[in-house]
Amino acid sequence: MNRLNHVAIIMDGNGRWGIKYKNSRNAGHKEGLKTVEKIIKETIKKKIKFLTLFAFSTENWKRPKKEINYLFNLLENFLTNRIKDLHKQNIKLKILGSKKFSKKLNKLLSNSEKKTSKNTKLQINLALNYGSKSELIGAFKKIQISKCQINEKNIGRYLQTKNIPDPDLLIRTGNTKRLSNFLLWQLAYSEIFFEKKLWPAFNEKDFHRIIKEYKNIKRNFGRI
Ligand code: FPP
Question: Is 23:35 a contact under the CB 8 Å cutoff?
């Protein structure tokens, strides 16, 4: 049976769920946050050490301002209300992506990372304003400046996911089969599950079903 150390998730389908059930995309984001809470709980129960959540891509800036503001308010409230408890649960928060938000949110994100930096039970990597191509370009530039060799080890060292093992499992909800510029380097050997359900409808049972299936896959890593 495969060990499961790192799960990455593309939480897709909030907008469609919101329109279908509440006639509002933002209502879908609000409901999506409830799924985030559920999955964090289950991740702890399953003793998984890393959970990476794609919450906002570099391409998501193309959305209407009203939706972007709603999403960042949701995040701000989430961190303000929940960081103490996450810390108490020994959870470490790390932000992937570049912190180019309001001064208030940048500070909140940095303080949340600092506060939880020594925690060891579970590391949650929140990808915000994250794009894999730009992360890779950043790494190549740093390698060029430091004049070290371009090789796998050095690229890994200069990525934002330095010290984080590659995901074993990627789940994308929302019935879409693409990677959307998410962890392109790090997902090279991950098992990928495309889930039909929209993110707000995704639940503990779905998570368990996927984990069970993942555990029984024969992972070859190029061997036979
Ligand atoms: C993709 O669905 C989802 C997002 C861009 C935002 C994800 C945000 C959350 C799950 C809630 C907030 C999370 C935190 C951690 C505070 P979509 O809007 O692209 O859905 P669609 O494909 O149906 O339009």
Answer: no
